[in-house]
Specification:
There is one protein chain. This protein has about 350 residues and is of the alpha/beta class. The chain has 14 helices and eleven strands. It folds into two domains: about 200 residues, Rossmann fold (3-Layer(aba) Sandwich), CATH 3.40.50.10540; about 70 residues, no CATH class. About 35% of the residues lie in helices and about 15% in strands. The longest helix is centred in the middle third of the chain and has 20 residues. Keywords: Transferase. InterPro entries: CoA-transferase_III, CoA-Trfase_fam_III, CoA-Trfase_III_dom3_sf, CoA-Trfase_III_dom_1_sf. It holds the Pfam family CoA_transf_3.
């Protein structure tokens, strides 16, 4: 690989599975040199599948170190001397025990940035913090699904991925400051922060969030999923201009203002639902897109990937979803995920 705005930035990773490795892979996609420090048996995600591991670890180097031994910790100290940052995704007790904090490593490099990515905080204990657990604990599951149905979990690891994004941002922010130090990111706080306007409505106005059928928005009407003659359609009308364009195309009269539609929610939704059943989701999308109305047919993952071929990259033998950040100095190519300990000699 060559290029990328983070070329020359050296990052060490001690992580496993998803949140930490996703954070450092994004940095590698932007040109950083990421060295994955694995235990002798390797990151446990290697045991899931080759494609799973590749989806979180392309473009990295791998070395094996037993950090439970004095020799392993001494080797880590040597690596830290020339690194800009260390990102750790482990239980707090393991982070402290293995000396993976700034206080433990600053003797090797005062400017080292140490990021601890945990479930509930570096000093909050070792309660299990898997993605689904955090979604349940932070109210995300209770906000998801139809009101008469059980709480629902999103179909992907939203807490892990969001925490990875946040950790990468925190790491870069501390590097830009020019000072070393400890950065903390935990899954619980990340998910609570993403409930921004929902939490603000409760904290300031006492409004407890509730679920609406078909994922309807609590403020905007109509803004939800609708069944059509074939397939489901996401319609998201946030202001009166969108409504006017939609109503003209759909042949609907009345409810010209946001207030009108909010005060007559059930009547508006029934009218829109009846109208949308007269055509297919794909046809409605084709009809409404030129008008500027926010709309999309609900696609399967294979359909979504087929609609965005520019997002598919090649990394060795793997076809993967590529980075979502476009820069003026992109990588010229993407390296495959490393074999376990592949770069130990280097």
């Amino acid at each position: 690989m060559s290029g990328g705005p983070l070329a020359g930035i050296r990052v060490l990773e001690v992580g496993h599975m998803l949140a930490g490795p996703y954070a450092t892979m994004m940095l590698a996609d932007l040109g950083a040199e990421v060295t994955k420090i694995e235990p002798p048996t390797g990151d446990i995600s290697r045991q899931v599948s080759d494609s799973y591991f590749a989806s979180l670890n392309r473009g990295k180097r791998s070395i094996r170190l037993d950090l439970t031994t004095p020799e392993g910790r001494a080797a880590l100290g040597d690596l830290a001397k020339d690194a800009h940052a260390l990102l750790v995704n482990m239980k707090p007790s393991a982070i402290h025990r293995l000396g993976l904090t700034y206080e433990a490593l600053r003797e090797h490099n005062e400017k080292l940035v140490c990021v601890a990515l945990t479930g509930f905080g570096l000093h909050a204990g070792d309660d299990p913090a898997f993605d689904y657990i955090v979604q349940a604990a932070t109210g995300v599951a209770s906000l998801t699904g139809d009101p008469d149905a059980p709480p629902t979990l999103p179909g992907y690891s939203s807490a892990d991925n969001s925490a990875g994004l946040t950790a990468a941002l925190g790491l870069l922010a501390q590097i830009v400051s020019g000072k070393g130090g400890q950065v903390e990111v935990n899954l619980r706080d990340v998910m609570l922060s993403q409930l921004n306007y929902r939490a603000a409505a409760y904290l300031n106005d006492g409004v407890e969030p509730r679920r609406h059928p078909n994922g309807a928005h609590s403020f905007y009407v109509p803004a939800q999923l609708f069944p059509t003659a074939s397939g489901w359609l996401a319609l998201f009308i946030t202001h009166d201009r969108f409504w006017k364009s939609f109503a003209t195309e759909a042949g609907i009269n009345g409810f010209p203002t946001m207030t009108d539609r909010a005060e007559n929610r059930e009547e508006v939704l029934a009218l829109v639902a009846e109208t949308l059943r007269t055509d297919t989701a794909s046809s409605w999308e084709a009809r409404l897109r030129p008008t500027g109305v926010p709309v999309a047919a609900v696609r399967t993952l294979p359909e979504a990937l087929a609609a965005a071929p520019e997002m598919i990259i090649t990394a060795g033998p793997y076809r993967l979803v590529g980075p979502s950040i476009r820069t003026a100095d992109p990588l010229s190519a993407y390296a495959p995920p490393p074999l376990l300990g592949e770069h130990g000699d280097a």
